[in-house]
Design a protein that fits this description.
The protein is α/β, with parallel strands linked by helices. It is 42% helix and 14% strand. It contains 6 helices and 4 strands. Strands 2-1-3-4 form a 4-stranded parallel sheet, sandwiched between helices. The N and C termini lie close together (9 Å).
């Protein structure tokens, strides 16, 4: 079982977008049983809140199922519980490392690293551009799956 935790600031836009996009991708490939995928926030601002309406609109547009998400904050113990902890931007990575202390097992990544890019996934809370965020999330999730497949996992 490959355990993946996506992280963004509030866990109402980008990280749940990545969570449910990757869940949809692995389900489509018949590999859902091999993954545990979740998302969390580095802040406490949105704890308990549902997915942002802009992200929900993307899910409806692209027929991506999503149910039951409420924002939770990342915990230090998540480092031991997950194989991959994937942030959306540099600030997320700094905050992840602040929460977990260090990354001795090299589990912390920025999503678009898997696509060979140093770009950040822009926060649509500020940009209002959920479509561009979705394209970046798809690019990163697709590259992540290729990375996993190339490692024969």
């Amino acid at each position: 079982m490959i355990k993946v935790l996506f992280i963004c600031h509030g866990s109402i836009c980008r990280s749940p977008m990545a969570e449910f996009t990757l869940k949809h991708m692995v389900a489509t490939r018949g590999r859902a049983s091999g993954f545990h995928i979740a998302s969390a926030a580095t802040s406490t601002e949105e704890i308990g809140n549902p997915i942002h309406h802009g992200t929900m609109a993307i899910f409806r547009k692209y027929h991506i199922p999503c149910t039951g998400h409420r924002a939770v904050q990342m915990k230090k113990s998540d480092y031991d519980a997950y194989d991959y902890i994937i942030g959306m931007d540099n600030a997320n990575i700094r905050n992840i490392l602040r929460i977990v202390g260090s990354d001795p097992e090299h589990k912390v990544y920025k999503l678009l690293e898997f696509a060979g890019s140093s770009r950040e996934v822009a926060d649509p809370w500020y940009t209002g551009d959920f479509e561009t965020t979705y394209r970046d999330v798809c690019e990163g999730c697709t590259a992540f799956l290729e990375y996993i497949e190339n490692r024969n996992i």
